[in-house]
Design goal:
The chain is mainly α. The protein is built from 5 helices and no strands. The chain has helices at about 10-20, 25-50, 55-60, 75-100, 120-125.
């Protein structure tokens, strides 16, 4: 019962979704720049403001101790959770952009277009000249009409 990855419909769906949301190279480079800047800002704000530092926030979120909603500790735990969620979103963006740079999305298939005829006869070229759509707007029109 060996199944290849090309015949599995779930892997095809996963590959289609991953390739659809994978950024192009220029967008991936821009995302990496801005998200690394966001990481630096997040680390700096967590260190300077009276919020818990990121390692402390990760430990607080990872601990199994639960607190009631209106205890003294619930605001601290929700702040830690917010910091960890921001860290995870930014880190995921950086990793996804790095993956998109290393493995770019496949080129789209060529769209069928109208074949252009290089050799056109002079009579066909003269038929394609545009006509004046309105004679009212011509410079030779009189104002008495």
């Amino acid at each position: 019962m060996a199944s290849s990855t090309t015949s599995n419909p779930f892997s095809q769906l996963r590959n289609a979704v991953v390739n659809r949301f994978k950024p192009h190279r220029a967008e991936a480079i821009q995302r990496i720049r801005y998200n690394i800047l966001g990481l630096v800002v997040l680390f700096t704000l967590a260190a300077l403001l009276p919020f818990p530092s990121l390692p402390t926030a990760i430990i607080a979120v990872a601990s199994r101790r639960s607190s009631e909603k209106w205890e003294n500790d619930w605001f601290y735990r929700w702040t830690c959770l917010l910091e960890v969620v921001l860290l995870c979103v930014i880190a995921f963006n950086v990793f996804e952009s790095g993956y998109a740079i290393k493995y770019p999305r496949p080129a789209p298939p060529p769209t069928p277009g109208k074949p252009k005829n290089v050799f056109t006869s002079p009579t066909k070229a003269s038929q394609n000249t545009p006509q004046k759509p309105f004679k009212i707007l011509s410079p030779n029109a009189s104002a008495s009409r």
